[in-house]
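Dear colleagues,

As part of the handover before I leave the project, I'm documenting each prediction I ran so the next person doesn't have to rerun anything. This entry is a single chain, and its sequence is reproduced below.
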Amino acid sequence: MSWVDDYVKMLFNLRDSEFYIVASGLTTSGPAHMGTVMEVLIPYTISKAIKARGRKSYFIFIADTMDSLDSIPVQLTSFTELKEFIGRPLYRVLDPYGCHESYGYHFLDEVLNLMRKLSIECDEVLTADRLYMEGWYDDYAKLFFSRLDEVRNILETTSFRKLPPNWMGVVKPICGRCGRNDSTVVLSFSNDLITYECVSCGFKSSMLLEDHNWKLLWRLDWPSRQDFLGVDVEGGGVDHFTRGGSWDTATEVHRRLFCKEPPVGFKFGFVLIDGKKMSKSKGLGSLSDIMRFIHPAVIKYFLLKHDLEENRNLRMDPKYLISLYEEYKLVGDGKYQDVKQLRAWELSGGVKWKTSFGELLIYYQIYGDWNVISDLTKDYESVNELKSYVEEWVNNKLLPDEYDVQLRPSPPPRSTEGLILEFCNLIDESMSDVDIHNKVYEVARSRGEDPSELFKAIYLLLFSKPKGPRLGKFIKVLGVKRFKAIVNEVLTTSPS
């Protein structure tokens, strides 16, 4: 069984129900990355698995738009006007592109578009600023202020941090002067009146709880939200679940203050790009590049085939990525018997391609016309699914040597011409790619020659380089007749 089957089995044992609310939330603080994909893919996969077992599930996604903008992502540093919004709630930060009501909503829309591309469906999308404005958190804030000593104890014991003696920081007010909510300190709370000071601009003022110009401390926000939404299942990255992390706090808040059991949690590993965290990657490692070069089903397969808590390392190496495409196809063809791989393929959408991605890379370089390629392969679905990704690979010159098949004919060593002509005489259109490939070995060995030298000579003749694609497959795609014509032209025009 895969991790999702194990998890759902555990969930049913811990919380037997006919209906489960699955939740996920993230801060829309900048461009999406692979960690963003995990935040929505994992809970969606769990929700699907619950439904597949005959029970009902409702998947809620929450955008933490009340969180403050703590830094400007590297992709947005050219928008210098964002500097003045540091520390403000995301829903009050300028959208640098000018197409949404705020920064937070711009990047929420990016996440929702990402979900659509990945065929991830949620039943409801909520934003934190609207939940606060509608008063969902009011009673929780009052509860935390009324039991301040117990809240302090929970925070100190679960986070291993000592709070100041006069601490009242249950909420983070939005400063009435500078608009920040990352630098305000609560001075007092009485009769629903919050008095605060902003350490950034020095402003002191008061606000009513019902004004909703505040947010709860994250470690109190999370369990409160889970409680009023009735969440049964929610998880996050391993950083939230480390000893002293926010999950420990949420669990204690549920049990000690709400007198309820917390949701059933789960934690997932990091997604690394070439061994580094995604947010620190540059160039080809960006999610926009990944989505251009890798089919969504393959992305989901890669993320889901690992154990849940295992780190995933996506190597942005063309050879590796092609092998990932090939692995996906082989699993779908039933060539791999690993249960986890097969389950990941099913959960990714179970897309079947008759023609492999690698083959289409070769076809496109030879023919450059998708109508011709569709007719040759008789595989219209695979061509339609993969053609945009193939074009990106070819146009961006991402091809490793064995897939770079731009024809650049040149004369081979004269000592190999006889062997090449003999090879040509022994192959025809009716032969399979494997039979054509094996003829190279047969011809070379019958003459006491090293087959690798004959391969090298044919590659030089075709591509002006000593390496290339699997030869039998390439000749089959090119056409034996066309291959022989190229050989004939090169050998008859080469200087004697």
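The two ends are 65 Å apart (CA to CA). The mean pLDDT is 95.

All the best with the project,
I.
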